[in-house]
Write a sequence for this structure.
């Protein structure tokens, strides 16, 4: 059976944790952040877990992570 290729764009945007959760960067951090509340800006610094409906597809795109 041939090797599976990792989707490079997916690998750069998502990270697999030790417990097989998939983390992604919070959207909307690049600009126009000065108008937002401090709480919102602080929350955007954290990574978010990817939606469960997408996890199967993401795991298929990243076959050799963990």
């Amino acid at each position: 059976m041939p090797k599976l290729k990792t989707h490079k764009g997916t690998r750069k945007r998502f990270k697999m944790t030790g417990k097989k959760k998939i983390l992604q960067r919070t959207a909307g951090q690049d600009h126009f952040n000065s108008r937002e509340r401090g709480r919102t800006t602080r929350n955007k610094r954290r990574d978010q877990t990817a939606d469960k409906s997408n996890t199967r597809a993401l795991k298929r795109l990243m076959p050799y992570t963990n």
Summary: The chain has a mean pLDDT of 92. The first strand starts at residue 14 and ends at 16.
